[in-house]
Amino acid sequence: MLKQGLQQKLQQKLSPLQIQTIKLLELPTLELEQRIKKELEENPVLDEVNDSEEGEESLSGNLSLSEYSVEDQIPSYKLYANNQGKDIKQQYSIFSVKESFHQSLISQLGYSSMDERSKTIAKYIIGSLDDDGYLRRDLDALADDIAFRQGIETTEEEVEKILIKIQEFEPAGIGARDLRECLLLQIKTRHTSPSQKIAEDILENHFAEFTKKHYAKIISRLGITEEDLRGAIEEIVHLNPRPGGQIDDSYTEQAQQVVPDFLLEYKDGELIMTMPRFTVPELRVNKRYADLLITSANSSQREGKEAATFVKQKLDSAKWFIEAIRQRHNTLENTMNAIIDFQREYFTEGDETKLKPMVLKNIAEKTNLDISTISRVVNCKYIQTHFGIYPLKYFFSEGLMTENGEEVSTREIKNILASSIDVEDKKKPLTDEELVSVLSAKGYKVARRTVAKYREQLNIPIARLRKEL
After folding, report:
1. Strand, helix or coil for residue 176
2. Which of the residues 63, 66, 292, 328 could staple to 24 if both were Cys, CB 3.0 to 4.6 A apart?
3. pLDDT digits (tens, 9 = 90+) for 360-376
4. Does domain 399-466 have CATH number 3.30.710.10?
């Protein structure tokens, strides 16, 4: 028996303005400046406003050109974008922050000798690495994704060959598929020494025994002394199990410069948020090209109509771009104000323990914006406060309830967890169950599986692996 049914799909087509706004929302200040400069170069209808022209009318004339579907009487406010704050002399500060390992790997890829096909595959592999720098995906599935998304037919063998090249990039250990491979990639880059050779042998051939701390078996099978083993273990414990998460701790060669998108000052008991001025001038529609549109529309010549069509397209593009910048500014401002209002106690004191649990949904509800919009605003944006500069993502974390019913940030729980492990007896380290008891004694009601999850996120091994000889 055949069943027939009607399936109705509602598809919402984004307007050019919406698409433009979404793209601009994701850009931090420096990238936005470059984007504006690029638009100025490519669109002759966009014009710069000199200081002496700020008060002038940006567009005159009635744009009633129905045959070219030009909107009637476009308000001048839609044809002008003010990128300046109230104090036009205010300049922003430039800070050095850590470059993400993804950015670092893409930069290194640019200097490699791979052909364009291999580089395209390599970029996809790099984009598939998790925050710790590991490739957790099956190579066969990755090859299928590359074929589907990049249009490149490849094989598991080719993907692995390119992955091995990526594993030669810095930091050592990047692109590993598991912890053993990550540590092996690093130990092989170290200066050859007796301890290094033993450590490599252990990781290569006796990793299971090592993780279970069956030291007697390792000593017996390798024919080494306890002192030899201690030296090898010393080599291994200084390796980085999270190469992607700790890139550029020195803030030196790979430090990139960012401009804070928001400035927050605490004056006379009030929090005052401003958005720094851009180094690019304000934008407006070029009056000369707008007049050309009107003149050309009245021409019967084919060339005139083609010119009018061209200018009309550029005029629309300029109008959408200017409006998108305005909407971006308003959205960023509203979102940041909502975050400050939500975390007012924290921003006043700068005390991390005052940071309330906050997720994207909380800010979406306060601003009446979509969660996806909030996510774009938060991405790659920074705020300069009176107690430091922070990425907006820093202020978002989930929450847990204490025994007295108070909700606290997971970041606070993690800090207490890390502190408890720091002061434990390393000859008898605390198990996850014992850590639950420690947290409970401090008033934090946390399940054992939650303790295990936070411990792993903090890159702290289980008790057995924290035990010292």
Report:
1. coil
2. 328
3. 889 999 999 988 889 88
4. no
